[in-house]
# Entry
Amino acid sequence: MKTMLIHSLLATAIASLLIPASALAAEPKPGGDIIVTYQNDVATLDPAIGYDWQNWSMIKSLFDGLMDYNPGTTELVLDLAQSYELSDDGKTYTFKLREGVEFHNGREMKAGDVKYSLERTANPETQSPGAGFFSPILGYDAVSAGDTDELEGVTVIDDYTVAIELTAPNATFLHVMGLNFASIVPSEAVAEYGKDFGKNPVGTGAYELTDWTLGRHLIFSKNLDYFKPSVPYIDSITFEVGQEPMVALQRLERGDVDIAGDGIPPAKFLQFKNEAQFDSLMVVGDQLHTGYLTLNVTIPPLDNLKVRQAINMAINKDRIVRIINGRATPANQPLPPAMPGYDKNYEGYPFDPEQAKALLAEAGYGEGFETELFVMSTDPQPRIAQAMQQDLLNIGIKAEIRSLAQANVIAAGGAQNQAPMVWSGGMAWIADFPDPANFWGPILGCEGAVPGGWNWAWYCNEKLDAMGDKADAMVAEDQQEERAALWGKIFTDAMADAPWVPIFNEQRFTVRSERMAGDESLYVDPVHVPVNYDYIWVK
Amino acid sequence: MAFPTLIRNLCRHKSVAVSLVVIVTVVCLAVLAPWVAPHDPNMQYFEGLTMEGAPLPPNEKFLLGTDLLGRDLLSRLIYGAQTSLIIGVVANGIAIFIGTLVGVCAGFLRGWTGAVLMRLTDLMMAFPALLLAIALAAILQPSIWIVALVIAMVNWVQVARVVYSETIAIASREFIAVERTLGASSFRILFSHLLPHLLPTILVWATLGISTTVLLEATLSFLGVGVQPPTPSWGNIIFESQTYFTSAVWLVLFPGLSIVLLALSFNLVGDALRDELDPSLKGRG
Amino acid sequence: MPIYLLRRLGYAVLILLGVSFITYLLLYMIPADPARQLAGRSATADTVANIRAQLGLDLPFYQQYFNYLTNLLQGDLGRSYIQRTEVSTLIMSRLRPTIELMAWGISFELIIGVSLGMLAALKRNTAIDRFLMALSFVGVSSPHFIASMLFLYLFAVNLDWFPLGGYGEFQHVLLPALTLGLLGSGWYSRMVRSSMIEVLQQDYIRTARAKGLTRARVLFRHVLPNAIIPVIPMIGIDIGIFIGGLVVVESVFGWPGLGQLAWQAIQRVDIPVIVGVTMVSAVAIVIANLIADLLVPLADPRIALDKS
# Structure
């Protein structure tokens, strides 16, 4: 993301030499009401519960947390916290909160709210999918087991100071505080709405929810008392649901819709790319995403390293990228290029079917073998799986495709002996926060190789896990480069065991109408996925 | 009536004659697919897509164009006929079997058994067929046989009801009473009198049923719970291509037309059969 | 009559009970674990276990079903796994659009079906008759998704006669309702045609004509009412198939009804919603059949009420 920002800065600098000064000063204009469309109903706006790509950015606009990211980038910055201090042993963070920040119901946010919010997420009764992220906090185990409601490690020192103690130094903690799950919520609103808080959210964010007609639309209105001056710019956002993506695009072309939330269906993509007037409406950005084929290392013959390496060399990634119309870049390692720790010099396994066949023969499977490939049944995933199927057939492996509903594929992957191969497309993995640790634990670490886990390769390398723990203990500012390099090494070492075939890194494409303005990176924000509603404006 | 006479009578209507031709053609295509299809239906050709990955419209090499993976559409349509027909015959066969069994038992045995069986069919009819099929397909990890089974589970009810009322009608006729007094066992009555009389009904419903089956399979595939890729079925070709509807019309047009044509043909033939074999059935649901 | 009604109601309740049992059983057998789904991808085993206990998913099947039934009788359909909203709220919010679409759809089915059937019967064995019957065949032979996509593309995108799907004023319901109506009218038009032909041959019709009544009067006061009788039970049977068509049509046209809800729920294996929508559909079908069964003898006194 940083490179993209630098590039766009450079581009702007050069362009500014060519464009007359009057046209340059594109100052954000306040005002305007925009329409965003989605096909599915919004599930919930409860920050402790909402965990799909649709409501992630919506929640970010309704709520704030201690930390956030610079708009359009992956740089951590302070948000509701004005400053923080890290103790010498690296275990305690003391945050000083901003004063005068108000919830949408008018009450001022205080340190007690921070403690309440964190405890709420960790409490099993809330059924929060993000509770596990708080496991580094002291006292989390007791809360998770249901023994107590209080997180021992979170202490309210005074109205505007809160201290959080961890069980061990953890370099990802500040990122965790930037997650939606760590958003600050007012206890009285939660008490009032109970389980329906998700439909009646109250936060400190740039927008507040003013209307929700189930199955039809939601309306966000500008928070006039927002603590950041001048943002947000837009007066109101109407999210219309139940809109088919193709139809939404037609309406966008006519100017009825401002942002097509579900993106561009593959068919329209080529048309958009090739017509100049539409091309300008499309924004491309990198995501912290990798699509991969997992190889279950516990199911023969995939338990044989040579077989897995052969499979790595058999898949033609360029062809697959072509099949999805070039909306991704081929990958050779688990980490996406925008992630710290990505190794530019790592070459991975080459596409070499002949060598793949040779390796298979060496492993004793010269005649090939039969296996199964699980995939989610929503287009284009089955197509991608079929392309891989053909590549495997070329080296003698007959893979039968199992195209199932997403939940069923996830269930199969999480059972040790059910799914030999799973194509992760449509399900995994986009980073929860821009740190390489998030790409390891759940999907390649031993902690994920459990029933119901997301480590569908069932890969467990304790040595690499230990290296990961060591990397996460490096909390000092001056250690961050070393930490990133260490993580990079962990992933490339893992590739030597070939538990996955990394296939591609999908790019994000957002379509906005002509009147939408604001830096392009805001429309493909890697954290406020996909759009950072707080900073965009209308011409 | 004798088979040749039947066919001759049916062909009196041009539309029915054409339908029979269509059905025979499709069957032949399905059976002779390996020889008739110009390409391997699963072969993803590199030159089957444009450089940007878009499918090709009909051209010299690929007569009906290619699909989104660069496979020949015509070959996939031909092999798709296999899928449609196999499922049609199997699903329908099972549906007819179960439906006839239930209907005959309920109609012949009457009393308690009959009432229970009929309530069972009412129960099945209360389910919206599509939801039931989708749910079953989601549980049973679809394959071509499971899809056939699922469709059969949903379709047997109509057959059962019709067979039931037919059985009652026939069983109440005098000659059955005569047979009983003469001492013939129930079993004999069943086989030598009842079933032959039911045959026309069964035949009509078998034919009409294939049309419903073809449509249901297409819809299930369209919703993503039909036969597994890469097995081609007319429904799942449309499913894979639906968002390309506006830019690659051939991918939806040709399979769509095939579905409608086949279903239509079976409908026309079934209806004509009904007129021919038992005019008293005319107009019944 | 009252005894018959009571007995039918009794059957209806039994049937609904059976539907609820089978649906719950089927969904219980789906391999996906709702607790894992709710817990999300980064959850620990503890969180998953906690959620499972809270949802009562660790109880044996019969106990889960029993709990569900008792809640059902109190109007509590549970909470959606995905949206965390009460299922009853979700269904209520989408009931009106679906009823609107159903009402218009069935109305169009009947209007188109009856008029075309009548026309075909009056002009029987002419080219018009054959054309109309062919049209009705094509209608029932077309899958809903193809027709919906075709009509949407043709009439809304290309010709711009209708809005691009969605919900709103009358013009929004027109195209989806017409699609449903055109496809479903085939059965009715064929039924009406043969029924009318039969009626037209009756003695009392010839008597009426001989008495000097105008053609129109005979048609509308004597022929039509009698010809439509067989249509009534058909509506009951039709509802089941119609609901299936709704799922597809609502999804293609972006109509915020129960069909769209059902489809989204099935995609995400949102079991409480799936069970809820199935129950609602079953109730609709059972009621429709009941009404149809009761109306028939009212329309035609010759048919005895108790025809089990």
